[in-house]
Specification:
The chain is of the alpha+beta class. It has nine helices and five strands; from the N terminus they run E-E-H-H-H-H-H-E-H-H-H-E-E-H. The longest helix is centred in the middle third of the chain and has 26 residues. The C terminus is likely disordered.
């Protein structure tokens, strides 16, 4: 049976003093979604009055200034095709691990290039009215749907409390965990890429989603083991 969408997840926040806090982030219920929708509409109208572009205007601007065209779309398609070709190699039992390792490394390079390319397009859509409204709705969900695991009490009293604690690691992790849950991604989604899973399985990569200060990283930190060098005496023998 197919696994249903995750409705909540527990996560642990390590604070500056070394203590840990267990929290639960949950998808909003019907009432919270309805109130969040009203907030979205209000924030969207506020953003438009303040001069923010809407997505339709941004798309028109992209076409008028030729900021993204068929050539760019073609490059993206080529990246996707190359990713699939190399992923097929990882699944092919007739290919040895050395070639698979090269394919996995190539996939990492391609994915980085693809991200860079699509980021060029996405910069045009920064600071749109839709983005502003969506952020306000997400904040509303965080206030109402992030609780302490043990007591079940809400972590943040209201939006103002969330804003006042925005530099705290608890608030930062709450933002990330809620954003990921809303779009159906796991906290370590980057480790689930085929190339990353293969390299980890072969013991060629180690990753952590926190830096040495305990802060949550959005990017994969990898350490790849270098092959052992063979001495001239060993080669001669």
């Amino acid at each position: 049976m197919a696994k249903g969408r995750e409705k909540s997840r527990e996560f642990v926040v390590k604070q500056e003093d070394g203590s840990e806090v267990k929290l639960i982030v949950s998808l909003p219920n019907g009432d919270t979604i309805e109130k969040g929708s009203l907030l979205y509409k209000s924030a969207f109208a506020e953003a438009v009055r303040s001069g923010c572009m809407i997505r339709a205007e941004a798309e028109r601007l992209v076409k008028e200034r030729d900021l993204w065209n068929e050539i760019d779309e073609g490059e993206v398609r080529e990246f996707v095709i190359e990713l699939q070709k190399n992923e097929d190699k990882l699944k092919d039992d007739n290919i040895d691990n050395e070639e698979k390792t090269l394919a996995a490394a190539k996939m990492s390079e391609i994915r980085a290039e693809l991200l860079k390319k699509t980021s060029e397009r996405n910069t045009v859509y920064n600071d749109l009215a839709e983005g502003f409204a969506d952020e306000k709705r997400t904040e509303f969900y965080i206030v109402h749907c992030v609780t302490y695991a043990e007591s079940g009490e809400r972590v943040f009293e209201d939006i103002e409390d969330l804003h006042n604690r925005i530099n705290d690691i608890i608030a930062q992790d709450a933002y990330l965990q809620m954003s990921l849950l809303l779009i159906g991604l796991s906290p370590n989604y980057f480790t689930e890429f085929p190339e990353t899973a293969f390299l980890a399985k072969e013991g060629l990569i180690e990753f952590s989603n926190r830096d040495e200060d305990g802060n949550l990283n959005e990017e994969l930190e990898a350490e790849t083991e270098e092959p052992e060098e063979t001495s001239e005496e060993e080669e001669a023998g």
